[in-house]
Amino acid sequence: MRISRRRNTAFRWLFLFALLCSTQTALARSYYSNFASSRPDMPKENPYKVLGINQHANDEMIKKAYRNMAREAHPDKNPHLDPSDAAEKFRRIAEAFEYLSNANQKRHYDSHLHKERQRERKRQQREEEIRRNQEQARRQKERKERKQRELRLAKARLAQKHIVQYKTLEEVKGDVVDQNGLYKHHFLCLFVSNKKAE
């Protein structure tokens, strides 16, 4: 009776703990989904690449790169290009500059790039580990096969050592039959005449 009460109490506590954990998980999911929806939109292409600068560029460097690229890509400066292509190139440069000019968006995008690099690094580490494991398994298999071949070869050599060639029946009797006329060993006889087995 006392054991069943303890067991029931333990099950109640376990149930309450599981319920608490599932509630916490649901709350965390809703919090992070709300957080994700409040983040700034990600640009379609890397604004740093569009402006031809690296991620560590400061505001002054971003402005300078924008001015230079906008001057070069302006549709009026490129009459030899299709007007829609020139306008599209200029629009991409302006959007990249606008995105990076917003400190919150820039910080968010830098964080995104950092996480992407970490994910890529982890993916490469996993792939490298898989390659190492496959290579190790291949080497182990080769070692095992080599040992098996060596063992078969050693057995064949040992068997060859036990092959005895006799030229007369008296030689056979001397080696195979003991003093009482009983066979000492099991043996197989093969009679060869003119190099043909009989």
From TrEMBL:
CDD domains recorded: DnaJ
Region of interest (Disordered), ranges: 106-148
Keywords from the named record: Chaperone, Signal
Gene3D superfamilies: DnaJ domain
Species: Ditylum brightwellii
Bias (Basic and acidic residues) ranges: 107-148
Position of the signal peptide: 1-28
Residue stretches making up the J domain: 46-113
Record carries keyword Signal: yes
Name of the protein described by the UniProt record: J domain-containing protein
Family matches, as PROSITE patterns: DNAJ_1, DNAJ_2
